[in-house]
Amino acid sequence: xxxxxxxxxxxxxxxxxxxxxxxxxxxxxxxxxxxxxxxxxxxxxxxxxxxxxxxxxxxxxxxxxxxxxxxxxxxxxxxxxxxxxxxxxxx
Length: 91
Prior knowledge:
Number of helices: 3
Structural class: alpha+beta
Largest sheet: 3 strands, antiparallel
């Protein structure tokens, strides 16, 4: 059974998501104070796991108003021709 689940997972497209953050120059913009100090949290196989990582990081830095974390849909950058259909899990 595990083999068939692995084979099925291999056929599905990977919807990679990057979670990263850093200190902003101004809380009203998205311009980082120092690009060398960006915190690359990780790359995740779907939006749900990326969201969990983002939420953990965002909550751990709640006392720093200038520190912000973001989720980037890497799969959209890697293959801009492919459209994720509404309601499809992991967008």
